[in-house]
Amino acid sequence: MRNLYSVFLFCYFLTLSTIGHGQDKKDIIKNYLLVNFASLNLSATDANQFTITSYGTLKNSDYLIAYLQQEVGGVKIANTAATVLLKNNVVTSFKHTFVKNIYGNISSSNASLTAAQSARKAISELGLSNTAGVSVVNYATKSDLKPSELETSNFEAPLNYFKNSTGTFVLSYEIIVKDPASHWWQTKINASNGTLLEKSDLMISCNFDIPVVTDEKPVNQRSHKNHSHSYEKDNLFFNFKKDSKNVIVLDSKSNAALSATDGSKYNAFPLGVETPNHGSRTMINNPARIGTQKTGSAVPSPEGWHEFGGKIESKTVGNNVQSYEDGGKINGPATEDSFAAPSSIGTLSFDYPLDLGKAPIAYQKAAIVNLFVWNNYMHDVSYAYGFDETNGNFQEGDYDRFAGPTSATINDWDGDEVQAEAQDGSGLNNANFGTLIDGFEPTMQMFLWGASPFGEFLDVIPPSATELRKSYASVRFPFVAIPREGDPSIDSRLVLVEDDGTPWVSTNSTPPGTPAQSPDPRDGCTAYTAAGAVAVKGKIAVIIRGNCPFVDKITIAQDNGAIGVIIINNAPNAGPVNGGGVPYKTITIPTVGLSFEDGKILLDKMATEPVFGRLVDRGPLANLINRDGDLDQGIIAHEYGHGISTRLVGGRNRFDCLLSQAYEEQMGEGWSDFFGLIMTQKINDTPEQKRGIGTYVQFQGIEGPGIRPSPYSTDMSINDYTYADIANPAISVPHGVGFVWSTMIWDMYWAFIGKYGFDPDIYYGTGGNNMAIQLVMDGLKLITCGNVGFVEGRNSIIQADAVLYGGANECLIRAVFARRGVGALAQQGTSERRNDQVEDFTINVPLIGVCGNLTLLDNTEILFSIYPNPMSSELFIRSNKNAGKAVVSIFDMNGRQLIESKMDLGFQSRVDTGNLVQGVYIVTIKLEDGTSYSQKLIKK
């Protein structure tokens, strides 16, 4: 069947193929470096010390991207990269993280160990003494090997030069070790002595900070931006137009000549329905038949969703994804019954019942089908925006559609359809996605989510003081069920723990074993004092949040005889503490978390008299039924989004550009949230609307807070996070950092809708929503590996706009990002840290004046410029027209009005700000007609 499309596809790839067979790209780039090495802070000898790892394409096919990596003697230099943009064989942009004079920094070039010996060293250094379920990736065959097979197989692993602690580069093997605990460890092993130089987990876990948060990485501690005043609506995001249809287009305007029609039907959640709380399943007919095809565009799945290896599979297997249950945590289908077969024999109809009142095992087939559908949706939609064969997408076969030059480390890019594992038994309250370079199969693991964490699980009971006796809002931890009312209860006196105050030694510190301060003896991080051990035995231990993981606190309390644990948050306005972690021994006692405020009430009373409590669950029984992540389409799209961003940043033959262990400011979680938001958007959504992430699996309503620091919204009174916030310890790495980035590109998405309108055709529409998605996708391709951060991310989107739209939207893009602190004068610092940035709210490009002093927009026209920002003793407001009488007010971040000035806004007006102290403020301009504008300011 594939030959049916060859004529159609010939024209599609003709341009790219012509690009690929033109002048040698390496010579072009080498000549460019020889001319420009000084301005790039390189030496002339560096001009020939690189290899082209892959090529990529943009929506504008006149351009080609070459992804480079430094090398010496054919051996790559770890953590170096360059992104080179070419047009008509001319370099138009060269961004890099190369090392100057790299040849002189090489300290050793001989390997004493074989790849197999290094693999054994890696397994040992990772502490995997029990090798059951452990495997090592063999680059020779793109397959996984058991440790016992290393010496008898043709095992290969890449060699590279890695920068050690002395600043020189040593020869090392890159060994990928997969362990049964859902980790894919990328290790660098010294090729001379077998020491572990670096490890990073390639299996990106998106627990959204719920199960693995520790006291070292607090979340949801945000008290400094709870505003009491309201922001006025920002005209960047309004006056948008929408199609009259009431659904996002799936497959209308069918074009039989270009569409795949295989008779498939699925009872699943359609595009635009985020969770069972947001809408119902429906029978989806022939969803591979993408409707509004553009002339010359390739069909994402030309032979439907069930073609695999040249034949049609009658189960949830196809060229894009294999979907199956993995309750036995074997990282693969156990039997043929692990897949979902058609519900009607002889058809491709998949219609299985879904009863959410039952345990997830009862509707497992429905979950597998939904996971299959949504992985295919993600494949097809992202294909339409350029995540195709040439750019490293996920497919078993590429239909001979790879285009452009083929210089690459691995030239076999087939065989990497997603392995999507439903109701995976290797975890809880989680989901993850792991991928290597193009041609290696990725894995998506979707887990069940435990009982609702929210409730009133603590009663204070007699003989406690009367004023304390009530049920307290609390959060359960996921390790042990809280007794139901009527079951044997856990009643006891509450006892504040007392540890010996010695430093707690972190197993996750750098280097491992570094002591971490634990000065508060109430945090229960270390051994209890003798008196503390006696006091807590048979009691409910009360522990203050501190420096160590929650599992450490709970386990130590359990070892000292406590029958239950209450953990009190240590930050005001943060809500009840929750989290989990990976227990290092079986936990047998229940734990609940309390807010700082409720905890303080109890602690104050406990200091003077006994307080008694009961841990009890009297919530609805439905809250005890696990929820299935396979039914949360936002999470599925989020996970797949990790595959998109990992393959696009740095090109299809790099997977190390978005590792949070190396780059704290990388925004992988943010791009994934963005994909989740756009895939589940409804046509009647509005820019200021609250969009939570993970509300369903957290047992929240559709307007619940979700599992991010705040819901997504363009309304600054709902979500006022800016660039500076990523340095806040309450913002986690990588989820919190990604949340702030996604906030910005979500703003941009709505700003484009405000300017160009909304097109409900998510695949090939031409509205502002489609334009914004395309800019995000092409921006990913233009980011420099090793320099991934907010300023680079903004600049890459601006560069994508120049390539695709001739720069028509640069000022709009700058305005959106400046509103959140990534202005023209913002500084990113190193991508390795998230606390060295400089926030700025200036839109204008200094000395160039691309956008003037653009600050406040009305229907994309400049109305006011407010400057300088940061300000000192005075503030100026410049108007492009006589705006008439206005009231200019300045508020602090607590909503208190500090300045009110009535004035006529002519060409330029002045406001005295000399009495304001250093800090962050909001200025509002209210005109006589009631129109208001707001902007954030910084006082130096």
Automatic annotation (TrEMBL):
Stretch list, region Disordered? 502-522
Q: What are the entry keywords? A: Hydrolase, Metal-binding, Metalloprotease, Protease, Secreted, Signal, Zinc, Zymogen
- Read off the SUPFAM superfamilies from this record: Metalloproteases ('zincins'), catalytic domain, PA domain
Residues of the Secretion system C-terminal sorting domain: 866-938
A single Gene Ontology biological process assigned to it is: proteolysis
User: Is Zinc one of the keywords?
Assistant: yes
Record-annotated PA domain positions: 521-602
Q: InterPro entries under this entry?
A: Fungal_virulence_M36, PA_dom_sf, PA_domain, Peptidase_M36, Peptidase_M4/M1_CTD_sf, Secre_tail
CDD domains per record? M36, PA_subtilisin_1
Cofactor list: Zn(2+)
| Cellular compartments annotated | Secreted
Any coiled-coil ranges, and where? none
Q: Which GO terms describe its cellular component?
A: extracellular space
Q: Name one Pfam family in it.
A: Por_Secre_tail
Give this protein's Gene Ontology molecular function annotations. Answer: metalloendopeptidase activity; zinc ion binding
- Stretches of Polar residues bias are at 504-517
The Swiss-Prot or TrEMBL record describes its family as follows: Belongs to the peptidase M36 family.
* Protein name per its UniProtKB record: T9SS type A sorting domain-containing protein
